[in-house]
Amino acid sequence: MKVMTIIGARPQFIKAAVVSRAFGEHRPDVQEIIVHTGQHYDANMSDVFFEELDIPRPDYNLGIGGGTHGQNTGRMIEKLESLMITEKPGWVLVYGDTDSTMAGALAASKLHIPVAHVEAGLRSFNRRMPEEINRILTDHIADLLFVPTESGRKNLINEGISEEKVRMVGDVMYDATLFYRKRARKPDLPNGLDLSDNSFILCTIHRAENTDDPERLKNIFEGLEISGQKIVLPLHPRTRSKVADSGIAFPDNVWVIDPVGYLEMVWLEANCRSVATDSGGVQKEAYFFQKPCSTMRDETEWLELVESGWNTLVGANATKIGNALSGNSSPAYAGFLYGEGHAGKKIVELVSHD
Ligand code: UDP
Questions:
Q1: What is the reported pTM?
Q2: C-alpha to C-alpha distances, 317 to 205, 221, 224, 321, 324, nearest whole angstrom
Q3: Which of 77, 86, 104, 312 would give a disulfide with 6, using CB separation of 3.0 to 4.6 Å?
Q4: Inside any domain, residue 332
């Protein structure tokens, strides 16, 4: 059997690494064709993940990135459709919630190729997020929906998706953390940045609702500044350019570094005191390392983290951010919220079931 994996953005490389490895270990007879849409193309947003995580090199790179959502999605559908016609995969595997996810699902479903969606069922209930539109559309055309959490399963059932298509497998990102934490390595740091006392806060910012709104972006940096904490910020290229456009100066307590590879990110997560982020994946990884997380958004898809007290929604409110980051609370461990580290194996078995 042939499976076509479609990826294009940083978190998808990490998720696909888990499933690719599981194909190799449990179903080496399945031929996996990897298609990189080109959505993320900087070396430190793409190549480094293939090198560090031993992901097989993509069989195809479509080189589509840098355009608007509509331009990218349209060009991806066109190219993916013709590749699917040539390669004739038995399944198409898509991940998460990007334009690559939706384009892959749409192209496949119109060719009557079954689609499996990894990380299905997540909802922020905020339709202004491009990710939310991608998730909803992908879930409604997918044939097999791999949900990481019970709340994901409920969301799908509430939207009328047949329970028969839904499989709760746990979260591939938990599998990734368990596997790669043994290889975690300290990143190169700028002169003067000492992380040896484990007292720093790891921060990431890249969500469009923050980067594309100068007021929110300004408030976030103000909150980071008033926290007075040592903050390490591996900065997404989009955020860097938006910060420059908005004329925001980085506060002195914020150490801005280039995006790091996953193994370095895992080291930072394992060694920080707490996390501040607007990322989906980093919120969960904070929990995997039992670090409190302040989420700089108005809502989250990962409700169980908020309910268990590990995640606090602080929006783009400078005072809330400043207070949350200077506090120091670690609730009781809430158990295995994201499966037990076997999501990749379960996905492979279900997709390659004859
Ligand atoms: N990540 C990384 N290097 C960085 C920042 C993030 O390897 O400099 C990893 C992070 O550990 C997580 C994933 O990228 O596994 C999350 O991706 P991102 O925040 O871009 O997307 P989201 O999860 O919000 O979709």
A1: 0.96
A2: 14, 10, 10, 6, 11
A3: 104
A4: no
